[in-house]
UniProtKB/TrEMBL annotation:
It comes from the Bacteria. InterPro entries: Aldolase_TIM, HMGL, PYR_CT. This is Hydroxymethylglutaryl-CoA lyase. Transmembrane segments: none annotated.
Length: 302
């Protein structure tokens, strides 16, 4: 059956904004995150300590994190940050981050494009990063990109994904998020992958799903994952997003579209949809174009 409660892991401030060419002021990012928290989201990926030349939008990560401390967030709210390597970890720790997210690729081509490395070399760097993060008492999640299809390599073998997932968990990730970076997954494939991972010893409560809506499949894929027992879903307020290093990647599953479905299914998220829609509308004004989310459009019409 379906889970009674789902954790919405909000990625708008990182995956959403990283693709925006126009720099959003650091203060506006801090307010965005505060408003997301006020709307009831409590896992909010705040930024990334990636190389500033690779993702200029996130070059202010070091300044943004201390701003979050000004807000009276409850103890429950967490602000994980994306970290590519040990250099990023040192920056994240200095900025006060307590939770990190590392990211690996299920394909060689994307490891080269996104991490300037091979799969093996990048896994070794991730393992070293995780070791140092755990020694600092941090909590870590892992992402695996290109879990379903890769724009250069085509369909991705279940085994290639499973090898990376198993290795990330062994290295200390409390959760691994299955990334459909370019949005080509379909619900049957989602189920097949989760079942294959279970056969490799990966429990469903260690997994999250991360869908991009490029082909309009994100919500259907999410439903398949819920039916398979997954209870953490990544999404982006307003449906912002995309990956600058993956051709044809568009926005993430929109948090509003997700919450609309979960509300309808009677699944608890703690998210106040009205406040969230207001927040995405506010960010859309800053970015100068409407939020791609269908639910945001429907709920702000008229
Ligand atoms: P590189 O150029 O190969 O780095 O980049 P390097 O290790 O050769 O080092 C070169 C210089 O960069 C050195 O400085 C380092 O100190 C510095 P120098 O000694 O020459 O003065 N450096 C850094 N500076 C600041 N912060 C750092 C850092 N690391 C090295 N962290 C690197 C390798 C991994 C850093 C680069 O490729 C990178 O930052 N990649 C990130 C790309 C990215 O952010 N992509 C989008 C996020 S992933 C995603 O969106 C997918 C996801 O959403 C899931 C899904 O949808 O599938 C998560
Ligand atoms: Mg993504």
């Amino acid at each position: 059956g379906l889970p009674q409660r789902v954790t919405v892991y909000e990625v708008g401030a990182r995956d959403g904004l990283q693709n925006e060419a126009a720099l959003v002021p650091t203060e506006a990012k801090a307010e965005f995150i505060a408003r997301l928290a006020d709307a009831g989201l409590w896992m909010i990926e705040a930024t990334g300590f990636v190389h500033p030349k690779w993702v200029p939008q996130l070059a202010d990560a070091d300044e943004l994190m201390p701003l979050l401390g000004r807000h009276g967030f409850n103890d429950h709210t967490r602000f994980p940050v994306l970290v590519p390597n040990r250099r990023g970890l040192v920056r994240a720790a200095a900025a006060g981050a307590k939770d990190i997210a590392v990211f690996a690729s299920a394909t060689e081509t994307f490891a080269a494009k996104n991490l300037n490395s091979t799969m093996e070399q990048s896994m070794l760097e991730i393992e070293a990063t995780l070791q140092q993060a755990l020694a600092r008492g941090m909590r870590a999640r892992g992402y695996v990109s290109m879990c379903f299809g890769d724009p250069w390599e085509g369909p991705v073998a279940l085994r290639a994904v499973a090898d990376v997932v198993v290795r990330l968990i062994a290295a200390g990730c409390v959760q691994v998020s299955l990334g459909d970076t370019i949005g080509t997954a379909t619900p049957g494939h989602v189920r097949t992958l989760i079942d294959a991972l279970e056969r490799r010893g990966v429990a469903r409560d260690r997994l999250a799903v991360h869908f991009h809506d490029t082909y309009g499949q994100a919500l259907a894929n999410t439903y398949a994952a819920l039916q398979a027992g997954i209870a953490t879903v990544d999404s982006s307020a307003g449906g912002l997003g995309g990956c600058p290093y993956a051709e044809s990647a568009t926005g993430n599953l929109a948090t509003e579209d997700l919450v609309w479905m979960l509300d309808g299914l009677g699944i608890t998220t703690g998210v106040d949809l009205r406040k969230l829609v207001e927040t995405s509308g506010w960010m859309a004004d800053i970015l100068g174009r409407p939020a791609p989310s269908r639910a945001v459009q429907a709920l702000t019409r008229g």
